[in-house]
Specification:
By secondary structure, this protein is mainly β. The chain folds into three domains: 2-99, Phage tail protein beta-alpha-beta fold; 130-217, Immunoglobulin-like (Sandwich); 234-903, TonB-dependent receptor, beta-barrel domain (Maltoporin, Chain A). Helix content is 7%, strand content 53%. The strands form 13 sheets. It has a 22-stranded antiparallel β-barrel. Strands 6-12-11-8-9 form a five-stranded mixed sheet, with no helix packed on it. The chain has a five-stranded mixed sheet with strand order 15-22-23-18-19. Strand 28 and strand 29 (443-459) form a beta hairpin. The longest helix has 20 residues, at 2-21. The protein starts with a helix and ends with a strand. Belongs to the TonB-dependent receptor family.
């Protein structure tokens, strides 16, 4: 017996000695994977590691140095960011590694929460697909499983999919991002994912802790009679908000448009409350607002001129675009700096699983888009390019002057999206567009947009998400005149804006969803310069001093859900605007007109010195009440400020108009809008009627003196007039989104007025009374219809009617010093003829064979099928003492188009 005790004591000494050795280890690990680290620890100690090779991630590389640390400390540290648990058997000198499962002593233990540890849950013969989470000694009855559901074919997220554990009657659905969150009990769970149009996916999982898993569904190949998606959660929210419209790029491909070019912005012109001054007019007018009162955002970056060819085409590539959200009423508080609307354009994320693309060839343009994975299931790159070859159209025209003209444009977009992990996603978008035109003149006009934006979306926790946006935008134009060496010149203009926005979304509770953030904009404007092109030119060099300003804002809003029927949105935004030097500020005598004779001083401000500051408090108040699920009353009040202005004394906006900043002499524009609307659904939301009314009141609207010179004018404030304005109207939309026959009927009545009153005659227009703005068009009617004959054949049509815009006519003439002069009516007293146009189209889809290189789509359309000679402008000329009126049109005859599209 004594000998046995002696042997046991000796063994214990050996064990104790072995444990002491492993409590004081020094080891230097450099560029080793987990397997290599384990081998190194086995060589340095008497312990043997037992594990399944498949459970060890060999891609994890470790670079660490441990000095006099215990073996238990080292193993804990190298495995802390993995899903591997370990158990130390000190008696047998073995360390057992398990994936997720925590090996316990044979008897139950009681943890810190007085909960018993769970029994073993996996038998040797258990079949399972995945172990989720890493087990700990603190046991809970339920854990949270999160993830996303994707289309296996194209890696697009699937919204509205159901994830269900049938045995336990637990289920969840995916949101607009394909995300789900479900509470499941500890242990074995059998999950089934169900979505119409896809094969069901089933997985058996072992849930040990909170974790994540993704599902990939295969599309069903059998043909269905019809699959109808009535709406989604985000669209329901938008429908309940006043003045919000949305378009998806894929939904407009059948609308007949000019020269067959698929165009989101021109499609938006068919919606109520959104107009343009006419064909060839750059920009849009929303609810009686000016062109410069609209903010165009592409992935968070600002575009100052999102059009091509003098407004005939959008500069937004439809193949790379996902959707367009238009806020013309209750504008989200995160957007500031414009009075009328925000056009929020988002591009698609590139596929991270397979290479694919889309292309089209038309009579004047060609378009190509490709997507390519960079890191599988993590990142991808999308590239889009468009170009025109429209010069041949001008060559076949009868007008000899136009035969010598030239028009071309192109645009490029590239986006990289990367999923860093389940909580962080980043994307970068770069955009470039360029237009060059020479219409029956010796001047070559060129304008371009450049934009780059970076977006970082971070899920901080279950309740809080953030989005950081950093962008830079540049807009410039150039005039190159070289017909006459004595008058040849180069004229340049440049606008640059750098923008930073950091937004947070906090889901405080089911009743409160809070948004808050900061935004900062830095403006740099070169108002222009003109230089002679050669030594013979008599043109005088002019260089207008540059302008700079900083606009800083903070904002806070809360979406408050009092009940399922009643909800509110309230928000406030504070903005501080600082005009910065280098700057030359002119001071005029008070209570007198701004002209050279009343100039009393000129102050020069050094670089970044503040020459003028303005503060503005904007607010948003919106509400909706659901009488039933199919009848919603909605209303809102918005107040906004605008510190940058587009100056143009043309009847329509031009790409060569200049932008200027607010200073002491040009005040910020202010606007407040009241909206009230009613939304009604019919026949299970197949039909919808949206009726809205609005009233807008403005301060400091900008207009100009007669014959104002706005280009390259150092004293621009002497040409500018500012005064109050108002616009009001009613909008009606009847829409059928689904079925064999679908489309919408859109009508709006609106008035847009301005008042320029002063104690001085030179600053008074129309006797100081309200008069119509250049873009006042009371009646606007659009009808868009699509009829699907079969799955492959459909016909579509588009009818558009608008009131003629205001114009000033000559009403008489007189002679002075043997020279005849014209007298004119009050400003904008008359109107040009009304505009109306009918377009038709036939659409042919390619076959739906599974094994083929690409899916094709043909579009045959006729733009202006009735050959209506819609006037673009009215002008007058005096010849031999007679005054003659003329009208010019862009398209005065039918324009047939054939466009071929294909996806691969």
């Amino acid at each position: 017996m004594k000998e046995l005790i002696t042997i046991l004591l000796l063994l214990s000494v050996v064990r104790i000695h072995s444990q002491e050795d492993t409590s004081n280890l020094t080891i230097d690990i450099k560029n080793l994977n987990l397997i290599e680290v384990i081998d190194s620890l086995e060589r340095k100690t008497d312990y043997q590691f037992l594990f399944n090779n498949d459970d060890i991630d060999k891609n994890i590389i470790i670079n660490k140095t441990y000095y006099k640390k215990s073996l238990n400390y080292i193993v804990t540290d190298i495995l802390k960011n993995t899903k591997i648990n370990f158990y130390v058997d000190n008696y047998n000198l073995k360390i057992i590694l398990t994936r997720g499962i925590l090996i316990r002593e044979p008897l139950y233990k009681v943890n810190d929460n007085n909960n018993q540890t769970p029994p073993a849950i996996i038998s040797k013969n258990e079949n399972y697909d995945s172990i989720i989470g890493k087990e700990t000694n603190i046991f809970k009855d339920k854990y949270t499983l999160k993830g996303q559901v994707f289309n296996y074919k194209n890696n697009k997220v699937i919204r509205g999919a159901t994830i269900i554990e049938r045995n336990k009657n637990i289920y969840a659905t995916t949101n607009s991002l394909g995300e789900f969150s479900i509470q499941l009990p500890y242990g074995i769970n059998k999950l089934e994912v169900i979505m119409t149009g896809f094969s069901n996916e089933t997985k058996t999982i072992i849930l040990l802790n909170n974790g994540k898993i993704n599902f990939y569904l295969f599309e069903k190949l059998e043909e269905l009679d019809e699959v109808i998606v009535l709406s989604n959660k985000n669209n329901k929210i938008k429908q309940k908000t006043t003045g919000v419209s949305y378009l998806k790029a894929k939904d407009i491909k059948t609308i007949p448009q000019v020269l067959g070019e698929r165009d989101l912005i021109r499609a938006a012109l068919t919606l109520p409350g959104i107009n343009s001054a006419g064909e060839g007019a750059d920009g849009v007018n929303v609810r009686g607002g000016k062109v410069d009162q609209n903010l165009f955002l592409l992935d968070g970056g600002i575009l100052y001129n999102p059009t091509h060819f003098l407004g005939l085409f959008s500069a937004i590539n439809p193949f790379t675009t996902n959707d367009l959200n238009i806020f013309k009423g209750n504008i989200p508080i995160e957007h500031g700096g414009r009075l009328s609307s925000v056009f929020e354009i988002s591009t698609n994320n590139a596929s991270t699983t397979k290479f694919k693309g889309e292309a089209s060839v038309g009579p004047v343009t060609a378009n190509l888009m490709i997507e390519h994975p960079i890191i599988k299931d993590k990142s991808g790159l999308i590239i889009g390019a468009r170009s025109t070859y429209s010069k041949w159209i001008l060559k076949v025209l009868d007008d000899k002057k136009l035969k010598n003209s030239n028009v071309n444009f192109n645009d490029f977009i590239i986006k990289y999206n990367h999923k860093l992990n389940n909580k962080n996603q980043i994307s970068t978008t770069a955009y470039y567009s360029n237009d060059k035109f020479q219409i029956a003149s010796d001047s070559i006009n060129n304008y371009s947009n450049k934009m780059i934006s970076f977006n970082w979306i971070n899920t901080i926790n279950d309740k809080t998400k953030s989005k950081l946006t950093i962008s830079n935008s540049n807009y410039n134009f150039n005039i190159d005149y070289s017909a006459d060496n004595n008058r040849s010149f180069d004229l340049n203009y440049n606008l640059n804006e750098t923008n930073l926005k950091y937004k947070f979304n906090y889901k405080y509770s089911k009743k409160h969803n809070i948004t808050y953030g900061i935004q900062s904009k830095l403006y740099n404007i070169d108002p222009g310069n003109i230089t002679p092109k050669n030594d013979d030119s008599t043109v005088t060099k002019i260089d207008i001093p540059k302008e700079k300003a900083l606009e800083n804002s903070i904002y806070l809003s809360d979406n408050i859900s009092f009940s399922k029927k009643l909800s509110y949105n309230v928000g406030i935004r504070f903005t501080n605007y600082l005009g910065l030097g280098n700057h030359e500020q002119r001071i005029y005598e008070s209570n007198k007109p701004k002209n050279s004779s009343n100039l009393i001083a000129t102050k020069n401000f050094k670089n970044n010195q503040i020459h003028q500051s303005y503060n503005g408090v904007s607010y948003r108040i919106g509400s909706n009440y659901s009488f039933k699920n199919d009848l919603i009353l909605k209303g809102s009040i918005n107040k906004s400020f605008q510190f940058i202005h587009r100056l143009s004394n043309n009847t329509t906006a031009s790409p060569l108009d200049t932008w200027r900043l607010s200073d002491k002499n040009i005040k910020p524009q202010e606007g407040i809008q009241f909206s009230l609307g009613l939304l009604k659904f019919f026949e299970n939301k197949t039909y919808e009627i949206n009726l809205e009314s609005y009233y807008k009141s403005y301060k400091n609207l900008i207009d100009y003196k007669i014959g104002a010179n706005l280009l390259l004018n150092k004293t621009i404030e002497t040409e500018v007039l500012q005064g109050p304005g108002k616009s009001y109207g009613v909008e009606f939309l009847l829409k059928k989104s689904t079925g064999q026959f679908n489309g919408w009927f859109s009508y709006s009545y609106s008035k847009s007025l301005i008042k320029l009153d002063s104690d001085f005659e030179e600053e008074t227009v129309n006797n100081g009374e309200y008069f119509p703005t250049n873009y006042d068009k009371p009646h606007s009617l659009d009808i868009v219809l699509n009829y699907k004959i079969t799955n492959r054949y459909s016909i579509s049509s588009n009818f558009s009617y608008q009131s003629g815009r205001p114009v000033t006519y000559p009403t008489g003439k007189y002679t002075y010093n043997n020279t005849e002069y014209l007298t004119y009516s009050n400003r904008n007293q008359f109107r040009i003829p009304d505009y109306f146009r009918l377009d038709i189209g036939v659409n042919i889809e390619g076959s739906y064979k599974i094994k083929k290189f690409a899916h094709s789509f043909w579009n045959f359309s006729i733009y202006n099928v009735l050959g209506r000679n819609n006037p673009y402008s009215i002008y007058f000329e005096t010849q031999n003492g007679n005054v003659s009126g003329y009208k010019s049109s862009v398209f005065s005859s039918p324009i047939p188009t054939i466009t071929y599209n294909f996806k691969f």
